[in-house]
Amino acid sequence: MRISPDDLVFWQYGFVRIDLTIVTTWGVMVLLTALSLFSYFSFMKMKSSKGASYG
Length: 55
Hints:
The chain is an alpha+beta fold. It has one helix at residues 20-48, and strands at 9-13, 16-19. It has a domain at 1-36.
């Protein structure tokens, strides 16, 4: 018996299917985007603080 992430379908309408592979891919993209934005705004906050010197 072969179990694949494509076998677990969350939503289907006609030929359009949302399965575990698509959900996982989008989840990773959202996580990486959130981490990137958090890092960017954290760095901008450090950069704008007064008296901070970076080598």
